[in-house]
Specification:
purine biosynthesis; Rossmann fold; alpha/beta; transferase; 189 residues; Formyl_transf_N_sf; Formyl_transf_N; 7-stranded mixed sheet; EC 2.1.2.2
Amino acid sequence: MKKIILFASGSGSNAENIIRYFQEKKTAEVVAVFSNNPSAKVLEKASNLHVFTSVFTKEDLNSGEVLLKLNAFQPDLIVLAGFLWKFPDAIVAAYPTKIINIHPALLPKYGGKGMYGMNVHTAVLENKESHSGISIHYVNENYDEGGMIFQAEVEVANCQTPEEIAVKVQELEQIHFPLIIEKIMKQTL
């Protein structure tokens, strides 16, 4: 069976959704969740769904230790689902076109270092954007600059707070992210 490894830093809503999707569909398996945050809720969610978890430090990521762990799993796809650190060039080079990320905005707008979560939604609101959405893209050596795979948008003109925008964007994430992961795996493997 095709293997997926997830990287997440926070609550794990996308990770949990992806794990459940593939446990039901059985077209692939999430074999591990890696996190840089030892208190991230994603770790508990993954464990409750019987998925291996691994916590690592920035030193582990940059020294090659995380790459060794990845290689042991031989993943078919690495999915960044709310992972906030930049991926080292060595991992990107080892898994070209096999690492994808989801971003809570319509790239190229509101991308780059520091543009994640509420920071993105606040910027969208402050700039009075009428639409926002999600971007699923390949990961390269730069933040949010890898090749675009998929975008979906939602109207946010009536939203009064970043939290209202976040709810609409998260709905898109929950609907589309597992489907796009499955589609990518069918096309490339």
